[in-house]
């Protein structure tokens, strides 16, 4: 908690506003408390705030208009909306306008304090440049000294102690599942289950029964009652990987389970209540899926409470060398091979390579090198790369494209021309491979 954080509290009910103001001040925040939307907009024009707690139903200018006015005034405060008239539509509209959370009255004061603290911690984690001095290079299996990864490590620490929904965004192979593992391991739910679901791997007809369970006789072959993933994750964390691939039909039930903490098994009438923390992951822009009509807008905003972006390997600088050395050490021990070091030309090639498959592709390359290298020095041929492919002279972007093209050719050759298998070897989707092959033909 930061005593320097400034909070704007907007509520026209004195019996609600004054106790909240007192609790926020007692917690160490600086608080500006107002009773109307007009006063709120006047306040944001005069100073900056870290968090704005805004009641939706206000005399005159209502809470949604306050959020619109804050945006127009250039305020970057994180907003928490409170209301006694909570609806999904209101929550969606508020989150479109930048609200980070939505609390329905009556609520425990502790719930609001937790929401405020969460916003403050995330702002502090994202604020300003990251100093790399004395920063950890490993966090729960993730390795990185670069500024983008240090920011990810700080965000993990900031959000882990909350119960808020988190969405992890990043390309294939960047380590989104490792981020989810770290958040759960750092949370108060660490001793409870972490249940993982790959939404892309579930047949559409079975998504509802997989997530929510099924009663005996609910469908052909359902010969007994079966618990779903939400029920199995009670008290712990549910990780929805590739959530963008979830079919549209079950999304309404998922939204209710997140929003209300309740659902019914397929074929059942008993309402079950669960306490589950949701972490979702996606490799695509979910907003585009919403615009295309393949993902519910209300579910998008409920998932997008605390986004964490995992950077691609090409944006992580010398982390590629740090990761390579980490994988060399780990895999040499695992395979029973002698310790190995990188030849200078190998390190140069690694720095220049774009790694379309990100960390997953790098690990596969290192595994190949450990298998093929009989000596103590890993050379380019052990990675399947050609000498001179990424020299210090010439155009770096062209060198990276050349290195990427060679890796694609090697994967296609090893896969006997099978593009699906080649894409799996590279750690990318078949669509991404097709796009890269199209680019090469131009």
Quick recap of the structure?
This protein has 442 residues and is of the alpha/beta class. The chain has helices spanning 14-27, 37-46, 63-72, 88-96, 109-126, 147-159, 176-186, 207-212, 229-232, 248-260, 286-291, 297-303, 319-335, 344-352, 358-372, 380-383, 396-414, 419-426, 430-441; strands spanning 6-10, 30-34, 51-55, 78-83, 99-104, 138-139, 142-143, 166-169, 194-198, 237-241, 262-264, 271-273, 277-282, 306-309, 341-342, 377-378. It folds into three domains: 6-126, Rossmann fold; 138-309, P-loop containing nucleotide triphosphate hydrolases (Rossmann fold); 313-441, Helicase, Ruva Protein, domain 3 (Orthogonal Bundle).
Please provide a written account of the structure:
The chain has helices at 14-27, 37-46, 63-72, 88-96, 109-126, 147-159, 176-186, 207-212, 229-232, 248-260, 286-291, 297-303, 319-335, 344-352, 358-372, 380-383, 396-414, 419-426, 430-441, and strands at 6-10, 30-34, 51-55, 78-83, 99-104, 138-139, 142-143, 166-169, 194-198, 237-241, 262-264, 271-273, 277-282, 306-309, 341-342, 377-378. By secondary structure, the chain is α/β, with parallel strands linked by helices. The chain folds into three domains: 6-126, 3-Layer(aba) Sandwich (Rossmann fold), CATH 3.40.50.2300; 138-309, P-loop containing nucleotide triphosphate hydrolases (Rossmann fold); 313-441, Orthogonal Bundle (Helicase, Ruva Protein, domain 3). The strands form five sheets. The chain has a five-stranded parallel sheet, with helices on both faces. Strands 9-10-13-8-14 form a five-stranded parallel sheet. Strands 6-7 form a two-stranded antiparallel sheet. It is globular.
């Amino acid at each position: 908690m930061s005593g320097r954080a400034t909070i704007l509290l907007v509520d026209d009910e004195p019996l609600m506003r004054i106790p909240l103001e007192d609790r926020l001040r007692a917690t160490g925040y600086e608080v500006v408390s107002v009773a109307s939307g007009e006063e709120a907009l006047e306040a944001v024009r005069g100073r900056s705030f870290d968090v704005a707690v805004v009641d939706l139903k206000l005399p005159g200018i209502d809470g949604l208009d306050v959020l619109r006015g804050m945006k127009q005034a250039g305020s970057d405060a994180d907003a928490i909306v409170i209301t006694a008239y909570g609806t999904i539509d209101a929550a969606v509209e508020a989150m479109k306008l930048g609200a980070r959370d939505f609390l329905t009255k009556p609520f425990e004061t502790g719930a609001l304090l937790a929401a405020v603290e969460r916003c403050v911690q995330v702002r502090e984690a994202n604020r300003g440049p990251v100093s790399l001095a004395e920063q950890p290079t490993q966090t729960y299996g993730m390795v990185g000294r670069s500024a983008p990864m240090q920011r990810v490590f700080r965000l993990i620490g900031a959000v882990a102690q909350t119960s808020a929904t988190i969405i992890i965004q990043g390309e294939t192979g960047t380590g989104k599942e490792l981020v989810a593992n770290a958040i759960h391991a750092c949370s108060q739910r660490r001793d409870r289950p972490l249940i993982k679901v790959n939404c892309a791997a579930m047949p559409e007809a079975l998504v509802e029964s997989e997530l929510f369970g099924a009663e005996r006789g609910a469908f052909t072959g359902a010969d007994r009652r079966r618990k779903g993933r939400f029920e199995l994750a009670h008290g712990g964390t549910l990780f929805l990987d590739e959530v963008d691939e979830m079919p549209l039909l079950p999304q309404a039930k998922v939204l209710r389970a997140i929003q209300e903490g309740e659902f019914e098994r397929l074929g059942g009438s008993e309402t079950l209540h669960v306490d589950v923390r949701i972490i979702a992951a996606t490799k695509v822009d979910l907003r585009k899926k919403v615009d295309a009509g393949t993902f519910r807008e209300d579910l998008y905003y409920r998932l997008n409470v605390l986004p964490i972006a995992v950077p691609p390997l090409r944006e992580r600088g010398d982390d590629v060398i740090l990761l390579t050395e980490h994988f060399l050490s780990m895999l040499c021990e695992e395979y029973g091979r002698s310790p190995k070091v990188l030849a200078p030309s190998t390190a140069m090639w690694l720095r220049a390579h774009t790694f379309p498959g990100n960390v997953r592709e790098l690990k596969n390359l290192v595994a190949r090198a450990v298998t093929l290298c009989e000596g103590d020095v890993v050379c380019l041929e052990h990675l399947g790369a050609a000498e001179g492919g990424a020299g210090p002279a010439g155009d770096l972007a062209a060198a990276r494209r050349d290195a990427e093209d060679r890796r694609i050719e090697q994967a296609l050759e090893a896969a006997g021309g099978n593009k699906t298998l080649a894409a799996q070897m590279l750690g990318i989707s078949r669509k991404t491979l097709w796009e890269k092959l199209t680019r090469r033909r131009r």
